[in-house]
Amino acid sequence: MTDFKNKTVIITGAAMGLGLATAEELASRGANLTLVDYNETELNKAKEELAGKYPEAKFLTVVADVSNEDAVKNYVEATEKEFGTIDGFYNNAGIEGKQASLVEYDINVFKKVVDINLMGVYYGLRYVIPVMQKNGGGKIVNVASVGGIRGVMNQTPYVATKHAVAGITKNTALEYGRDNILTNAIAPGAILTPMVAEAFREVNPADPKAAEAQYASRNPTKRLGKPSEVAKVVAFLLSEDNGYVSGQIIAIDGGESNIYGNS
Ligand SMILES: NC(=O)c1ccc[n+]([C@@H]2O[C@H](COP(=O)([O-])OP(=O)(O)OC[C@H]3O[C@@H](n4cnc5c(N)ncnc54)[C@H](O)[C@@H]3O)[C@@H](O)[C@H]2O)c1
């Protein structure tokens, strides 16, 4: 297990779900962490819990909405000021939007999904990359989705923005590999986080557990993924063990995205 001692990593969407699970994985390995989220209450709760459990890790919390360019610039500057450098960036914050067909989709929700899932990811890269260039390199993990590889019924803006994240990842790897910056994206399937629990409530308000069981039955593993299983992959991609993986969209989905036909 690679040590993250003296390594500084920024995690967006760190207050819960996949961001929090990676924060815990890296904190357990002694990292300096900037935890970014727009939910101040949950962010402070997460930091308190992690700081109590992992005294060898260091924490900075920054309340920021990643769709606000100035707020993104600020979390990058605050990290440099506190820790002096940025070795890793987990560009994770994202929202699902609503479940609705393409024609009926609420335009304002559509634009919000684009602002957070696409522009938020872009702003992060725009401000983190120059710091990594100055400091001789770094590792970036963007968060796409199986919805960044395949279509998903009734989730057009989510699918569109996650395909865009896959594209941005390939271009970042292409343009900044020469600066010793390795950039990848993960494409999680259904991982049981608050976001996915909410999606099951929307699909079947009367019985979200039934929606969850039906979803799990389609997966080759017959279960949903755990946030900790995603965190281990992200930690590898951000670590010194990763020397040459770049520009990849890595599915973490129990094999589900390869299915064609019955499972
Ligand atoms: N859980 C899954 O199965 C799954 C699958 C594929 C992709 N993803 C992606 O993983 C990422 C994390 O998802 P999750 O399931 O952990 O979600 P979640 O809703 O459980 O947690 C997301 C966190 O991000 C924060 N956040 C959302 N928008 C923000 C913004 N504009 N600025 C700052 N913070 C913001 C939330 O407050 C929350 O703490 C998202 O990009 C999501 O699309 C998740």
Automatic annotation (TrEMBL):
Pfam short name (any one): adh_short_C2
Protein's name according to its UniProt entry: Glucose 1-dehydrogenase
Cross-referenced SUPFAM superfamilies: NAD(P)-binding Rossmann-fold domains (SSF51735)
One term of GO molecular function: glucose 1-dehydrogenase [NAD(P)+] activity
Family of this protein: Belongs to the short-chain dehydrogenases/reductases (SDR) family.
The entry's keywords: Oxidoreductase
Taxonomic placement: Bacteria, Pseudomonadati, Bacteroidota, Flavobacteriia, Flavobacteriales
InterPro entries cross-referenced by the UniProt entry: NAD(P)-bd_dom_sf, Sc_DH/Rdtase_CS, SDR_fam
Natural source organism: Kaistella montana
Record-listed E.C. numbers: 1.1.1.47
